């Protein structure tokens, strides 16, 4: 009888491939599981397309569900317009990975009085690990601006998006338009990234700062376009370790540290870098401003690097006698101490003859100012500089010069 060899115990040439395939599948399953997220569509919580009915209760219910989840959670807003009344999202939930992904638009009520007496339209307080991405926030601010321009009795108005006492925040790829007041407020926060946002309001819209940061640390603002009626970015007391890069500003009032010296006991501003900003037709470029009041505050360690000015009224400005409309100004000297400020690689055109102005406090002169490689002109001619109570040095080619030798 012939004997046939039993090869079933021998390794098949396909077995190593099968083993590798199984390992790859298991690894893919582990990765996708680790990055999986619970998706909460606001439509499933009662949100209504078309802007005819208030959808804020649906957003509150979705937020409550996200807070209760033990997994990464995405609150999803699909295409369409959703009428949203003022909402406050409070922290204290165990979930530290909640994302709002917006494909549509959140629209404020057309009656400005509904937002006018609240501080913020969309407010996050005490949250950790929240991301907002995409979509449009339309605050319908024009009616309130018209009220204010008519000198009628008008509410103060609301900020569009407000993060307070929060950590590890991401705001990406979002548009904010026609805010009643500030578009984005970062207050008392740590580790914040604002990236690729588009902020839009007309030049005549009052107090519509694009992004305001105060009492916050490790804040990064990059690759954003800001067109508004006030400061594109404003930096208030207690701000530390800020990185601002590749900002296009205009119209608007520029990038400002201040106004400071609101209070006698006020925390200082430290370690701020503004890099590669472009200013077009703005009132100011790079500004530090404080009221002429006693204050314990300071500005220390600021770098303005690589800015381009296009027809800017005050390209480089330190104003320690800030007094808009000459109203309620104390007529004293500012207590804010300004030191170690670097301006480097600033080029472009000034809309006024004076391109560099340092109007510092006689009681607390500005110290340690460095101008390096500055080329600013006025109507294709040499611009001028004006300096009071300012001490520093000039390096490389500085035009206009006259402040420091």
TrEMBL record:
Keyword Hydrolase: yes
GO biological process: carbohydrate metabolic process; cell wall organization
InterPro entries listed in its UniProt record: Glyco_hydro_28, PbH1, Pectin_lyas_fold, Pectin_lyase_fold/virulence
Main location per the UniProt record: secreted
Domain of life assignment: Eukaryota
Compartment list: Secreted, Cell wall
Active-site residues annotated for this sequence: 253
GO MF, one example: polygalacturonase activity
Keywords: Cell wall, Cell wall biogenesis/degradation, Glycosidase, Hydrolase, Secreted
Presence of keyword Secreted: yes
One Pfam match: Glyco_hydro_28
Family under the similarity heading: Belongs to the glycosyl hydrolase 28 family.
The name this protein goes by in its record: Polygalacturonase-like
């Amino acid at each position: 009888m012939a004997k046939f060899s039993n090869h079933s115990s021998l390794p098949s040439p396909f077995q190593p491939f099968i083993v590798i395939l199984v390992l790859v599948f298991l690894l893919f399953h582990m990765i996708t599981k680790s990055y999986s997220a619970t998706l909460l569509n606001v439509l499933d919580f009662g949100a209504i397309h078309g802007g005819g009915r208030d959808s804020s209760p649906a957003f509150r219910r979705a937020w409550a569900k996200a807070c209760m989840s033990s997994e990464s959670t995405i609150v999803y807003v699909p295409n369409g317009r959703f009428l949203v009344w003022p909402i406050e999202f409070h922290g204290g939930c165990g979930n530290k990975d909640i994302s709002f992904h917006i494909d549509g638009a959140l629209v404020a009520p057309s009656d400005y009085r509904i937002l006018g007496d609240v501080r913020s339209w969309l407010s996050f307080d005490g949250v950790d690990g929240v991301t907002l991405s995409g979509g449009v926030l339309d605050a319908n601010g024009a009616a309130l601006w018209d009220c204010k321009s008519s000198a009628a009795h008008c509410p103060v108005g609301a900020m569009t998006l407000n993060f307070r006492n929060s950590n590890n925040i991401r705001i990406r790829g979002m548009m904010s338009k026609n805010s009643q007041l500030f578009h984005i407020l970062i207050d008392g926060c740590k580790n914040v990234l604002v990236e690729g946002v588009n902020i839009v309001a007309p030049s005549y819209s009052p107090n519509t700062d694009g992004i305001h940061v105060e009492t916050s640390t490790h804040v990064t603002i990059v690759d954003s376009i800001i067109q508004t009626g006030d400061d594109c970015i404003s930096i208030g007391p207690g701000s530390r370790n800020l990185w601002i890069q590749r900002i296009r500003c205009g119209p608007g009032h520029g990038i400002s540290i201040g106004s400071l010296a609101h209070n006698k006991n006020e925390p200082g501003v430290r370690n701020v870098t503004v890099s590669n900003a472009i200013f077009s037709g703005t009132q100011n470029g790079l500004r530090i401003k404080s009221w002429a009041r006693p204050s314990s505050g300071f500005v220390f360690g600021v770098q303005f690097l690589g800015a381009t000015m296009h027809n800017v009224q005050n390209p480089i400005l330190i104003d320690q006698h800030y007094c808009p409309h000459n109203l309620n100004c104390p007529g004293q000297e500012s207590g804010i101490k300004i030191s170690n400020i670097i301006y480097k690689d600033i080029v472009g055109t000034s809309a006024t003859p004076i391109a560099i102005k340092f109007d510092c406090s006689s009681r607390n002169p500005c110290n340690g100012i460095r101008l390096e490689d500055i080329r600013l002109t006025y109507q294709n001619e040499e611009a001028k500089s004006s300096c009071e109570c300012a001490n520093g040095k000039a390096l490389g080619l500085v035009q206009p010069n006259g402040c420091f030798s």
